[in-house]
Amino acid sequence: MATTLKDIAHAAGVSLTTVSRVLNYDQSLSVGAATRKRIFAVAEELNYTKIRRPQAEPQTKLHKIAIVQWYSEAREQDDLYYMAIRLGIEQRSQYHQFEVTRIFQNNINQLTGEIDGVIAIGKFSADQVSELQTLTDNLVFVDDDQFTAGFDSVLTDFAQAVQQVIDFFWTQELHDIGLIYGTEITTDGQRQINDPREQAFKQAMTAHQAYRAEFCFASDFTNQGGYQAMKQAITTLGDQLPHAFFVANDPMATGALKALQEAQISVPERVSIFSFNDTALAKYVYPELSSVHVATNLMGATAVDLLQKRAQQAQVPQRVELGTELVFRASTK
User: Fold this and answer.
1) For residues 67 and 52, what is the distance between their CA atoms, to the nearest angstrom?
2) Where is 35: in which H helix or E strand?
3) If both were cysteines, with which of 84, 167, 291, 323 could 296 make a disulfide (CB 3.0 to 4.6 Å apart)?
């Protein structure tokens, strides 16, 4: 098995980021000469070889790209949002006749040979970003804002979407609105990700002078997570249970629906539910979920186009933020 940066970092007793920057001759890195010497000595001892092409070689056409999905294959089946993004990437890549390699759960050690570009889906720590950068300079992130770190990023406009949901509930005279949102951590456990919908919700409700922290419940982005969060809301709030809930994704919303049904709380007569992502799951539950439609296919296609442009000529990083639209179904009045 080929030596990785993690192997060198472990043997040299330094961070993965430090190894990456030293081996890339980053003169701005504040590290002692002894540490630099030790890292190069360990790299030589372990026969480390970079697998990305030399910087001086011109590249005008992508041939082989890798999709690095932060979810496992099993988890991707449970959260169709990330699967839809991946399919969008693959469809656009097929149009350009790119050879595509899929890597799940950020396991880049599975990559063999040389690649021309990487599209990373999900959330990544600084060390994971540094490791991806050793593969190629052509790197695009989807659903993770790495723009300030110098990388192209394709994102969703969460703030506007949440504001539209709150505005809709307000027109329905629903002013006591609860939130079920998610918490995540990168696969290496190094970065905790805050749900941008939680902050957008707080801002929108505060503007109406209606934000109540006790109406907000955090869990993981799974069906069981949504179920447990709504069970907690029902138990702790009782008759004060909000008449509307915004839920951060479709799997959580289906779990929340189950908890309400078990408690014999009618939807939407007593509680209205508005979900997020609008995957196929939203249409296969009862009642069908109103949901914020996210342009997942376009997110994937945009990432491929950005990668192609970056390979053709050097350019400044781009941050592309796509809009959303509300899809109304039976879970709201």
Assistant:
1) 16
2) helix 33-45
3) 84
- Report yes or no: 45 and 257 within 8 Å, Cβ to Cβ: no
Are residues 140 and 169 located together in one domain of the fold? no
Helix, strand, coil % over all residues of the chain, rounded to 5: 45, 20, 40
What letter represents residue 274's amino acid?
Answer: F
Contact 216, 229 (CB under 8 A): no
d(CA 169, CA 201): 12
Cα 245 to Cα 275: distance, rounded to the nearest angstrom = 8
Count how many residues are written for the chain.
333
Q: Is residue 250 part of a domain?
A: yes
Residue 59 counted as domain residue:
no
Q: What residues make up the domain containing 267?
A: 158-294
63 near 115, Cβ under 8 Å?
no
Q: Give the Cα separation of 155 and 323 in Å (integer).
A: 9
User: Rounded distance, CA 233 to CA 228, Å?
Assistant: 9
Q: What is the pLDDT of residues 185-207, one digit of tens each?
A: 999 999 999 999 999 999 999 99
Question: Residue 289 sits in a domain of what CATH number?
Answer: 3.40.50.2300
Residue 53 has pLDDT above 70, yes or no: no
Reading the block at residue 195, the tokens are 């749900």
Same domain, 302 and 258: no
DSSP 263: T
- Position 283 scores a pLDDT of 94
The verdict on whether omega for the bond into residue 196 sits within 30 degrees of 0, i.e. cis, is: no
pLDDT greater than 80 at residue 225: yes
Structure tokens at 200: 């957008």
